[in-house]
Amino acid sequence: MKFKITLLMVLGTVLMTNAQMKKWTLEECVTFAVENNLTIEQFELDLENAKIDKSDAIGNMLPNLNGTTTISSNTGFSINPTNNLPTNSTAFNVNGNVSSNVTLFDGLRNLRQLNRAKMNAIANQYRLDDLKDDIKLSVANAYLGVISNKEQLRTFRAQYAVTEQDLKRTKELVESGVVPRGDLLEIEATAADQEQQIVNGESLVLISRINLAQLLQITDYENFDVADAEYQIPPSDILNNSAKVIFDKALSFRNDIKFSESNVKLAEEDLKIAKGAYSPTLSAFFQYGTRYSDVTQIPDGNGVPFTPNFTDQLWIFDGISYGAQLNVPIFNGWSTRNNVKRSQISLQKAKLQFEQDKLDLETNIQQAYVDVTTFYKAYEAAEKTLEARRLAYDYAKERFNVGLMNAFDFSQAQSRVDNAEASVIRTKYDYIFRLKILEFYFGIPISLN
């Protein structure tokens, strides 16, 4: 009795869990993928590094400040710090100084490093946003794959339900002697094929769900599912715009293009920084120092030598030094010249990559534009084919029911309907995805509403 109660409780928990399983919408999947993708998190860390580089560049323009303290003890031969004469004794010494340096001019390299750091932060933001765009498209494609497989599975089950009815009628016709038993065997074979289709369809649904879950980095595959829905062809006026118009608009906002353009600006700034090494560097310095030594001897007011205490020596022996330093580059083994040449090459490569990225974008948009038109025509053709197959199937069914058609020909008519329905589902979702890609290039967010 206890075992039965426990079993009922377990089954009840499972049923409640399944009933409460979250059904994900496309928008929820896209949002979750963007917020939890590991690659995005890595790119976000790169963006944080770029912001730190900006702080470094600002710090390079500020004066530095350093303090140094040295404590030492000498036994034996040494130089007396008070009179610079050799001595052979034990001495305890303390030296301290504070220094500051600031670069006054370095060919504007520090300023350009700051500009470059700002540009690099912007470029990393574009790269991050471009990755998010790619993930959104991948999630949308995987999501539509799940929906398409689910719709096909529903179709397979509906077809099997019709075949079951045909099988029941055929048994009655065989028992009444209207049709031969071979026709019943043919219908049974058709039913077995459809059962296999259902099994394969269930596998495809499961695999597509797992693929989508992996994109979202969700490991609880069994409890992950998308919202049940059957999408129709969404209305869209995107084809009212030419491919050229879509391309021109895409150039104004696409993150991959912005990232490529930012790389050109970064390369231009790198070239300016490299050329700045030809210029002299002017810096200023300031230093304050003092010392203490227990062997220090200075005369008092009566001319008698004595050793001042620690605090007094710090004030007596302190000193300040300051000045400026000019460093003029004359010859450095052609390193500056070669760095400039490397920067020039990098700039040319960045410009070529920018042009290539624009060309790739135009090619992709042209292809997407053609795909939308082509896949819609394929969908329309599949719809017409399905309508014709259904009419042929209804006619074949009437003939089969009165014994004017054998079961083999009838099953062939039904198989053609099954294939036509599968083709309609496939071409419909192929078209929807291509349509969403083209709209995405035009700046329209991904949505199935």
Automatic annotation (TrEMBL):
Gene3D superfamilies in the record, alphabetically?
Outer membrane efflux proteins (OEP)
The protein's organism comes out as: Flagellimonas spongiicola
Stretch forming the signal peptide: 1-19
Q: What is the lineage of its organism?
A: Bacteria, Pseudomonadati, Bacteroidota, Flavobacteriia, Flavobacteriales
Provide the alphabetized UniProt keywords: Cell outer membrane, Membrane, Signal, Transmembrane, Transmembrane beta strand, Transport
Q: Does the keyword Transmembrane apply?
A: yes
**Family of the protein in this entry:** Belongs to the outer membrane factor (OMF) (TC 1.B.17) family.
Q: Where is the chain membrane-spanning? A: none
Which InterPro entries does the record associate with it? OMP_efflux (IPR003423), TolC-like (IPR051906)
Q: Which Pfam families match?
A: OEP
List the protein's name.
Answer: TolC family protein
Out of the domains of life, which is the source?
A: Bacteria
Q: Where in the cell is it found?
A: Cell outer membrane
Q: Does the keyword Membrane apply?
A: yes
